[in-house]
Structure formats: C-alpha cells, structure tokens
Design a protein that fits this description.
By secondary structure, the protein is mainly alpha-helical. It has one domain. The chain contains seven helices and no strands. The protein starts with 6 loop residues before the first helix and ends with a helix. The model has no long low-confidence stretch (mean pLDDT 93).
C-alpha cells in the first residue's frame, strides 16, 4: 500500500501520541512509563523501512486505517470531512540483508515483550506501532529519519563482520 496519511489521519495519530505521552509528562517522567509505547513505535518505524513482508504490510496499512478512522472521527465531531493527503514520505526499500536481520531480531524481541505485557501495555505497544508507522508515511518524519536505514544496515554489517572475522561461526 502506498496511500498517504491524510490530515485527519494525522490528527488521529497525534491524539494517540498525546494520550501516551501526557501521563508521562504530567507524572514523574519515569522513562519506564514510555517503554511499552516506545517498543511499539520503534517497531513501527523499522517496519516502515521494510519493502514487503508482514512488517512492510503493517506499515503500509497504518496510514490507510488511520486516514479512514480519522476522517470518520473528524467528520463526526466537526461535521467537516477531511481527506486532504499530506506529502508522502518513505523509508521503504532501504534495507540490506544485514539490516533486515537486525529488524527481524528487534521484531522478535518486541513480540516476546508483547507476550509478557499486561493488557494496558499491549494497548500502548499497538498505539506506538501505529504512530511510528503512520508518521513515517509523511515526508517530514521520513526525511528526519532518513539516517535510520543507514544506521540499521551499518549495525547489521558490523555484526556480520565481527562474526565473519572472529572465527565464531
């Protein structure tokens, strides 16, 4: 899916982001309060780099689902329908083989965390996944995170080089 996030979809994304950041901001600002949301958001951003597969598909569905739900919500609240698309950005298709392995390992770690998480933390993780993936569909966020595919690919390459040269395997 290559549909852009709409203005109403962005509004919904920002509401979900605010709902997760506000308790942390008004509370004691313990970083642990953001852990579940952050895990989901990290996976959403990494999924936006995937050209296909389950993560790529989920990242492509996020702006479509958010735009549809956001349009209905904004229309229901204001009576004005909003479907104006935002400038499209993309991190997709930037992964090397080594980078894909890093993303896979992070995804498995998040799935393990999901399985052990409480119900509220699962909701936060899902919200983070949605926010990370949908925001990466905008030109501004994708541009700001354009360094990330190189970082992930470089990390994977360094791990591979360390294993290849150390005679570990």
């Amino acid at each position: 899916m290559n549909a852009p996030l709409t203005l109403a979809g962005l509004a919904l994304t920002l509401v979900i982001l605010w709902a997760n950041l506000r308790p942390w901001w008004t509370g004691n600002r313990d970083p642990k309060m953001l852990a579940a949301f952050g895990k989901g958001a990290a996976l959403g951003v990494l999924g936006a780099m995937c050209a296909g597969g389950l993560l790529g598909w989920l990242a492509g569905c996020a702006p479509v689902a958010g735009s549809t739900a956001g349009s209905k919500a904004v229309g229901a609240v204001t009576g004005t329908h909003s479907g104006t698309p935002l400038a499209r950005g993309s991190l997709s298709g930037s992964l090397t083989e080594e980078g894909a392995v890093v993303v896979f390992c992070v995804a498995v770690g998040v799935v393990f965390a999901w399985r052990k998480a409480a119900k509220d933390d699962k909701k936060r993780m899902a919200g983070g996944l949605y926010c990370g993936a949908s925001l990466c569909a905008t030109a501004g966020v994708a541009g700001a995170l354009s360094f990330l595919p190189g970082l992930v690919n470089g990390t994977g390459a360094q791990i591979r080089a360390a294993i290849d040269s150390a005679g570990v395997l």
